[in-house]
Design goal:
CATH topology of the largest domain: Spore Coat Polysaccharide Biosynthesis Protein SpsA, Chain A
CATH class of the largest domain: Alpha Beta
Strand order of the largest sheet: 5-4-1-6-11-8-12
Number of strands: 21
Largest sheet: 7 strands, mixed
CATH superfamily of the largest domain: Spore Coat Polysaccharide Biosynthesis Protein SpsA, Chain A
Structural class: alpha/beta
Radius of gyration: 20 Å
Strand content: 25-35%
Number of helices: 8
Number of domains: 2
Order of helices and strands: EEEHEHEHHEEHEEEEHHEEHEEEEEEEE
Length: 309
């Protein structure tokens, strides 16, 4: 099955501020490496023969990172002058995507432990026009809520409905697989989403829309807090395909970082490349981003540290 990959990397990352004032959200680090490059590798490992990335916010920064990366498959980019939503973004590449049997799509701010190839396989087995990866979550009002039948067929979808936070729901994981026919149904030049627009449109035309339930690790990296938690999960070995580099016991130390001999590191801890950790510091359950300086005697517990070098 000829497969293309699409990574949605155009968003402004408003929930991630102030980090995203100068840094585009897809380039936030997970174990000291841009999230976008992790996603590119995951797409290639899932069998994508070509990867497409849409850009908007700080597009030049993202383009430089991709240009410098030796990816095993071709990576194409396109800048959106105006944002058209996570489904509308596919129209930027529609002419190229028509030649593929399946198009795997992932949001540029999600981290999943499940193999993307499993989503594609579920899509192929169902002969579906759209497959939506789903995770079971509380606080579903922040996501697209999915109504799933016993046979995993989607019967409906609601974008960020006002459901009580304590309720459990299946929600969109921000990972999709589409047929070329489904992409052709997305109107050009308009803002178009999956749960709010594409799912109802395809269902109204009696097309096959299914869910692929994910059972492994999954996190939406949309806020500074979730960025810290994703890094600590990776350092603690909770993300199967991410291996920390450090002293063991859940400690990751990036290249060129200097940690004073009297510093105490109580894992999980992530120290970014070029960071400097002073004498007598205590770091516990914390992430220090690249090139940050932690002065001597500092105590950081449950922290995300970003300081000028």
């Amino acid at each position: 099955m000829r497969t293309a990959g699409v990574i949605l990397a155009a968003g402004a990352g408003s929930r991630m501020r102030p980090l995203t004032h100068a840094l585009p959200k897809p380039l936030v680090p997970v174990l000291d490496r841009p999230l976008l490059l992790h996603l590119v590798d995951r797409m290639a490992a899932a069998g994508a023969q070509e990867i497409f990335v849409n850009l908007h916010h700080h597009a030049e920064q993202i383009q430089r990172v991709l240009d410098a990366y030796d990816c095993p498959v071709p990576v194409r980019t396109a800048v959106e002058p105006e944002l058209t939503g996570p489904a509308g973004a596919l129209t930027r590449f529609a002419d190229r995507l028509r030649s593929y049997d399946a198009v795997l799509v992932t949001s540029g701010d999600v981290l999943s432990g499940d193999d993307l190839a499993e989503v594609r396989a579920r899509h192929q087995r169902s002969d579906a026009d759209l497959t939506v990866a789903a995770v079971r979550r509380q606080g579903a009002r922040h996501f697209g809520v999915l109504d799933i039948g016993d046979d995993s067929a989607l019967t409906g979808a609601r974008e960020k409905p006002p459901v009580p936070d304590e309720e459990w729901h299946w929600v969109s994981a921000g990972i999709y697989c589409l047929s070329a026919a489904a992409i052709d149904r997305i109107p050009r030049g308009s803002v178009f989403d999956y749960a709010a627009d594409l799912v109802p449109l395809l269902l109204s035309e009696s097309r096959t829309v299914v869910a692929a339930r994910l059972n492994g690790y999954w996190r939406d990296i949309g806020t500074p807090r979730s960025l810290r938690e994703a890094n600590l999960d990776a350092a603690a070995g909770r993300i199967p395909w991410l291996a920390p580099r450090g002293t063991g016991e859940g400690v990751h130390i990036g290249s060129g970082a200097h940690v004073a001999g009297t510093a105490v590191l109580c894992g999980p801890v992530v120290i970014g490349s070029g960071a400097r950790i002073g004498e007598g510091t205590w770091l516990e359950n914390s992430v220090v981003l690249s090139d940050s300086v932690i002065p001597a005697g500092t105590v950081l517990i449950d922290a995300l540290a970003v300081t000028p070098a």
